[in-house]
Specification:
cytoplasm, globular, 8 helices, AGPR_dimerisation_dom, EC 1.2.1.38, alpha/beta, 346 residues
Length: 346
């Protein structure tokens, strides 16, 4: 740590949507010193001339982007680079950073065939990364290499994990995940005219978050579920809504389901269960989570069927906010430090 006791932090890929959001949060973190921000595209430029969201922050004045190879010694390096870029940087970066928390997808999977299909560049690095969802594991205090979940994957896990962990769900589940435009990053070629006022399929099959969901749910049940996972593009800047459909095991009651969710999230400051939803306004929705680090979850049961719904801000709880949450847990800070609990409305 720095002499004044602050955690020295580097953000790699600080000019992308996730990196910029992480910078915005860390500027208000009382125990963090932003030591290094990388951007190959904007090297040498002041961050206030590129990141509109922080240009009026006093701590951002005079801070400039630096090239990736210029990273100095830090306590934590956050990887917000495009998927596939970080692995080649790890030999040098691991000598300069005490801990690496990757927000991109490189080290989320453990099955070699799935890694080859979705993240082949990560096979060049042998040391394992621990997959971290803060609500589902002990704080990774002693771990050097951490990888956070994908935004649509973690939204799905918040919706489904209590059912599977308690042994209440059948082995097959259908999931549709709807995401805003920022989920594609800030270098897409899609014209705004094609997205505004539109709602369409993104990937009916083959999304790389699907094996991540199967892996995470299989770890708590001992048997991977049969998952059908499709994604859709929303005409919004940010936010994800996941809806999961399946059958309960024979004899499981609605009360057992309610208890499973209450138990799973009883002590989680950022996952809120909407109990006994009756009308549309009772279910998770974008207006109640976007701008916050909160994920809302609800489940509705009829006979042996269930519909589980979760919503969150993909750039906050799905990425940068979860990264700060993990930092807080690793260093023993208040888990909610520098993270917003309220949404932005209207």
């Amino acid at each position: 740590m720095a002499e004044h006791g602050k955690v020295r932090v580097a953000v790699l890929g600080a000019s992308g949507y996730t990196g910029a959001e992480l910078v915005r949060l860390l500027l208000d973190h009382p125990h963090v010193e932003l030591s290094y921000l990388s951007s190959e595209r904007y090297t040498g430029r002041r961050i206030t001339s590129v990141l509109a969201g922080v240009r009026n922050h006093p701590r951002a004045a005079g801070v400039r982007f630096q090239p990736l190879e210029a990273c100095d010694e830090v306590d934590v390096a956050f990887g917000c680079l495009p998927t596939g870029v970080l692995p080649a940087q790890l030999p040098k970066l691991s000598e300069r950073a005490e801990r690496i928390i990757n927000v991109a997808g490189d080290f989320r999977l453990t099955d070699r065939a799935q890694i080859t299909a979705h993240y082949p560049e990560s096979l060049s690095w042998a040391e394992p990364f621990r997959y971290v969802v803060p609500e589902f594991a002990e704080p990774p205090v002693g771990e050097r290499f951490l990888n956070l979940p994908g935004c649509m994957a973690v939204t799905t896990l918040y919706a489904l994990r209590p059912l599977f962990a308690a042994g209440l769900a059948g082995g097959e589940v259908v999931v549709d995940a709807k995401t805003g435009a920022s989920g594609s990053g800030n270098r897409v070629s899609e014209h705004p005219a094609d997205r505004i006022g539109n709602f369409r399929v993104h990937k009916p099959y083959g999304h790389r978050h699907a094996p991540e969901i199967v892996q995470a749910l299989g770890e708590v049940t001992g048997e991977p579920p049969r998952l059908r996972f499709s994604t859709y593009s929303l005409d919004v800047a940010r936010g994800i809504v996941v809806t999961a459909y399946g059958r309960l095991r024979p004899g499981v009651s609605a009360l057992e389901v309610k208890r499973a969710y209450g138990t799973a999230y009883a002590r989680t400051p950022f996952v809120r269960v909407r109990t006994a939803p009756k009308g549309p306004a009772d279910f998770p929705m974008l207006k109640s989570v976007v701008g916050s680090n909160v994920a809302e979850v609800a489940v509705s049961v009829r006979d042996e069927e269930y519909v589980a719904v979760a919503a969150l801000d993909n750039l906050l709880k799905g990425a940068a906010g979860q990264a700060v949450q993990t930092l807080n847990l690793v260093y023993g800070f208040d888990e909610t430090l520098a993270l917003p609990l309220t949404a932005v409305t209207p």
